[in-house]
Amino acid sequence: KVTKDDLFHMNFIRFPSAERRLIRTVGVRKKMTINAGYSKSTDVTCAEIPFYSPFGELSLVLLMPGKQKDFVANGLAKLEAGLDVEKWGRVLRSMLPNTVNFQMPVFKHKSLQNYSEILADIGLGDLFQKNKADFSGITGVKSLHLADIVQLTEFKS
């Protein structure tokens, strides 16, 4: 569990900017035992951060191109382009329990996805049409149809 004592101010380089200036942000620092490692064959440093989930085990796997102290120019683009199932397996197998002084910025991400068009494209468009949808087996109401199918995802570190 993260406490206020684990929070601190840290600086990060803002890469999308041409100036590559340092940005001050709040981060979290904690000494913890996690699965972490370096995969030499894929040149990736990785760490698995466990999360509490009422649905069972859930974790965030963080990948960083190169070794822990190295900066790899265009490393993320190269990593994304070359990552396949076999390499992903090698990365996961490279992690072992390690006690580390882990630090990362505190962040929040929220996204809303509408899947109605995708479902219509794969042949489920009738679900959204008042005269064609048939959910009478669920509610007994024949005129019931879906307006949209959306997914809201929120993630906080």
UniProtKB/TrEMBL annotation:
User: What Gene Ontology molecular function terms does this protein carry?
Assistant: serine-type endopeptidase inhibitor activity
Q: Which GO terms describe its cellular component?
A: extracellular space
| Keywords noted in UniProt | Protease inhibitor, Serine protease inhibitor
Residues covered by the Serpin domain? 33-153
Leader sequence range is none
Look up the domain of life of the source: Eukaryota
Listed InterPro entries: Serpin_dom, Serpin_fam, Serpin_sf, Serpin_sf_1
Q: Does the keyword Cytoplasm apply?
A: no
Q: Which SUPFAM superfamilies match?
A: Serpins
Q: What is the protein named?
A: Serpin domain-containing protein
Q: Could you tell me which species this protein originates from?
A: Meganyctiphanes norvegica
